[in-house]
Design goal:
The protein is mainly alpha-helical. Helix content is about 65%, strand content about 5%.
């Protein structure tokens, strides 16, 4: 016998019907009314849904895939989940007349609680909603604990559900693994994943193991596992995403981009994936393709909660790499207009100004570029303790700007800060570590500069006592430094001559650099 919850799964619930067509909303209204819904809200586009989600708690969103000409149901779900505008307890069900398998997979990737293919009956809708509602009820306490930050308690609750309600065991196990990965408790997550694999090699379990390998820097192992997973499950777009990131971290951006493009045009309807593809194209040196992809990103996120400052920065840079300064200026203008009220607006605007000016060889442009970078660093200092505003991606852009501007002290300070950030991905960490090492070497070289009187004395000691790498390097760097800084110093000829004698005696490279040859 059916329970009251199964007969009227929406009793007392608030429901949003998101569909562009009035007659479709009317038909849905009749169905959900029969299922007990008391508050039924119409939405004709994605903006309506977002507005309703901000204004009130919603129990169920029934959303048509072909929602409006700006955002489809897939994009809406992505925005709502990524910006946390709907809680985990909210049911989101996608309705689509699209029977293309590729499209259905793309929709399901963003984890709607269920999807329905048109046409469907009231009975079918009732059955699907009842099943989803019962599952949400079973996980209600776990969701509350997770959203309040009590992840250990949430893990315990999922473990309880797993054994008390075995019909939800796979869902509970998966939620436990996701929580452990969030907590970076990789060993415990791996134990559960191995348990899943031992029962049956389901794709998401293999994916979880690859995520752990990636997080722990086992890139070759992760690449091997994901290559097999994507070959046997070509529709698993999440696995292709991770494999692309692994290839990127292995220094193969062209292979990573080809992998994402091979998933078909439907795959690039995902804003996150589209953004990654644009970044990979830029890394591979295909700035024209990068600008095409990033233009699509900016177009998709415009006037939505998915807009990110780094999208505008990357797009403007792609145009500048092509010599299209007018297009870069257009993007800068749009960024200032679109994000004028955001806390990082000044930082991003000045960062884009620096990127544009640094390529202009004119002395005035270089001076203005330096001033723009100073403004970027001031804005970054003001936001340093606000990670929700100054994201790792934007701070990495600032770090790269310092590298281009040869600001050694700022490179080191910002790089060290980036390495402490939990939201800095593997790519950022690897790149920062490499550039930090170079910056520290450069600072060490600069610190080794000594006055010419000391240089002459140090060279005499080398002749008398034998070669020493640190002392020899300091002598050579100092001669080059003073040759450029004070080329008329009367002591320089003697220093250059003595340096040549030392280098020749110990079989070192005797060909002098530009500064050391100056005025010789």
């Amino acid at each position: 016998m059916a329970t009251p919850e199964e007969l009227a799964p929406l009793r007392g619930k608030k429901v949003v019907l998101a569909d562009h067509y009035p007659h479709s909303r009317g038909a849905l209204r009749e169905m959900v009314s029969l299922l007990g819904a008391t508050t039924i809200i119409n939405a004709t586009n994605a903006s309506d849904v977002v507005r309703q989600a901000k204004a009130r708690s919603i129990d169920l969103i029934l959303c048509d895939y072909q929602l409006d000409g700006v955002r489809d149901g897939q994009q809406l779900l992505e925005e709502l989940r990524n910006t946390k505008q709907i809680p985990l307890a909210t049911m989101f069900m996608m309705i689509t007349g699209e029977r293309s398998y590729q499209k259905v997979v793309a929709v399901a990737e963003f984890a709607p609680d269920d999807y329905l293919l048109k046409p469907f009956t009231a009975g079918q809708l009732q059955e699907r909603i009842a099943a989803v509602a019962l599952k949400k009820l079973a996980f209600a306490r776990a969701y509350t604990l997770m959203e309040s930050g009590k992840l250990d308690d949430a893990l315990a609750e999922c473990a309880r559900i797993r054994y008390v309600q075995p019909q939800y065991a796979p869902d509970a196990l998966r939620l436990m693994i996701e929580t452990l990965l969030t907590l970076k408790r990789h060993e415990e997550a791996e134990t559960l994943l191995q348990e899943v694999v031992a029962q049956k090699l389901v794709p998401w379990a293999a994916m979880g193991l690859a995520r752990i390998q990636h997080a722990e820097g086992l890139l070759v192992e992760a690449e091997q596992g994901l290559t097999g997973l994507t070959a046997s499950n070509p529709e698993y777009l999440g696995a292709k995403d991770l494999l692309a990131r692994v290839k990127e971290d292995l220094g193969k951006p062209d292979e990573a981009l080809a992998l994402l493009e091979s998933a078909g045009p439907g795959a690039l309807s995902n804003t996150t994936r589209l953004r990654h593809a644009g970044s990979l194209a830029a890394q591979a040196g295909d700035h024209k393709k990068a600008s095409v992809l990033l233009e699509k990103v900016v177009g998709r996120v415009r006037n939505s909660g998915l807009a990110k400052a780094e999208d505008f920065v990357a797009l403007a840079d792609a145009y500048m790499e092509q010599g299209r300064a007018d297009q870069a200026e257009r993007v800068s203008t749009e960024q200032r207009r679109t994000m004028r009220d955001t806390p990082d607006a000044e930082l991003v605007s000045k960062l884009m100004e620096f990127q544009r000016l640094r390529r202009d060889p004119a002395a005035e442009a270089q001076e203005r570029a330096g001033a723009a970078l100073d403004a970027v660093l001031d804005a970054r200092s003001a936001l340093r303790d606000k990670p929700e505003v100054l994201t790792a991606a934007v701070e990495f852009d600032v770090f790269n700007a310092c590298c281009l501007g040869a600001r050694q002290d700022d490179i080191i300070a910002i790089g060290e800060h980036l390495l402490t950030r939990a939201d800095a991905g593997t790519k950022i960490v690897l790149r920062v570590k490499a550039l930090l090492a170079q910056a520290r070497q450069e600072r060490a070289r600069n610190a080794a500069i000594v006055p010419l009187d000391q240089v002459l004395a140090m060279l005499s000691r080398l002749l008398a006592r034998g070669w020493d790498d640190a002392v020899g390097h300091s002598c050579r760097s100092s001669v080059a430094h003073w040759s450029n800084g004070t080329p008329d110093d009367a002591r320089l000829p003697a220093a250059r001559q003595r340096l040549g004698e030392v280098l020749q005696k110990f079989g070192m490279e005797t060909r002098l650099g530009e500064g050391e040859r100056h005025a010789a």
